[in-house]
Design a protein that fits this description.
The structure holds two protein chains of two kinds. Chain A is about 0% helix and about 55% strand. Chain A has strands spanning about 5, 10-15, 20-25, 35-40, 45-50, 55-60, 60-65, 70-75, 85-90, 95, 100-105. In chain A, the strands form two sheets. In chain A, strands 2, 4, 5, 9, 10 and 11 form a six-stranded mixed β-sheet that branches. A five-stranded antiparallel β-sheet of chain A has the order 1-3-8-7-6, with no helix packed on it. In chain A, strand 9 and strand 10 form a beta hairpin. By secondary structure, chain B is mainly beta. Helices cover about 0% and strands about 45% of the residues of chain B. Chain B is built from no helices and eleven strands. Chain B has strands at about 5, 10-15, 20-25, 30-35, 45-50, 55, 65-70, 75-80, 90-95, 105, 110-115. Chain B starts with a strand and ends with a strand. The relative contact order of chain B is 0.33. The chains are: A mainly beta, B mainly beta.
């Protein structure tokens, strides 16, 4: 069965303090790894899709990378508005991790 | 443009009652997905439709849960004999193409179901 593990569960950063979130996965035949952002009381919002090891994608302060076993979401110089829960999902997008709750302190 | 909408936004019911949750996908999207999300957890897959048919219903937890999409657009998730453990946020998503495994999913805001 496909599995996704995210770490850390929660992360507090000072504004401007860069860090990375981890998504480890086991899946038979990865079709894609997906990153979403979820704000309280809202549905997940799509960020990135990665399909193969070595692939990288960027959007503003976020950069997602993929290896054969894990993906990282790098956050460079975060701002308070980046505070949210970040979710990853694999394969048919049906298997989500439990998310990392990010808080960026001004 | 209109995104995915879900009604009601909140539903409170009593144990043993029947509930229906509605999802209006983005117009023209062929694929529709239902998930449920408990506090502090990621979305848990329930069922996925391509057009009018359920392409994968392996996530439905038991036969109390049923979903339909009769005209390939609006979908209704139906829960019979609700239990307190059914309390969660039920999320709906849609995607535009037949390549559901690699499509971007667009989520609605969810319906918060509370079973007393």
């Amino acid at each position: 069965e496909d599995q996704v593990t995210q770490s850390p569960e929660a992360l507090r950063l000072q504004e401007g303090e860069s860090s990375s979130l981890n998504c480890s996965y086991t899946v038979s035949g990865l079709r894609g790894l997906f990153w979403y952002r979820q704000d309280p009381g809202k549905g997940p919002e799509f960020l990135f899709t990665l399909y193969s090891a070595g692939e990288e994608k960027e959007k503003e302060r976020l950069k997602a990378t993929l290896t054969k076993k894990e993906s990282f979401l790098h956050i460079t110089a975060p701002k308070p508005e980046d505070s949210a829960t970040y979710l990853c999902a694999v394969s048919n997008q049906f298997y989500f991790g439990t998310g990392t709750s990010l808080t960026v302190i001004p | 443009g209109a995104g995915v909408s879900q009604t009601p936004s909140n539903k409170v019911t009593e144990k043993g009652k029947y509930v229906e949750l509605r999802c209006d996908p983005i117009s023209g999207h062929t694929a529709l997905y239902w998930y449920r999300q408990s506090l502090g957890q990621g979305p848990e897959f329930l069922i996925y439709f391509q057009g009018t048919g359920a392409a994968d219903d392996s996530g439905l937890p038991n036969d109390r849960f049923f979903a339909v999409r009769p005209e390939g657009s609006v979908s209704t998730l139906k829960i019979q004999r609700t239990e307190r453990g059914d309390s969660a946020v039920y999320l709906c998503a849609s995607s535009p193409s037949l390549a559901a495994s690699t499509d971007t999913q667009y989520f609605g805001p969810g319906t918060r179901l509370t079973v007393l």
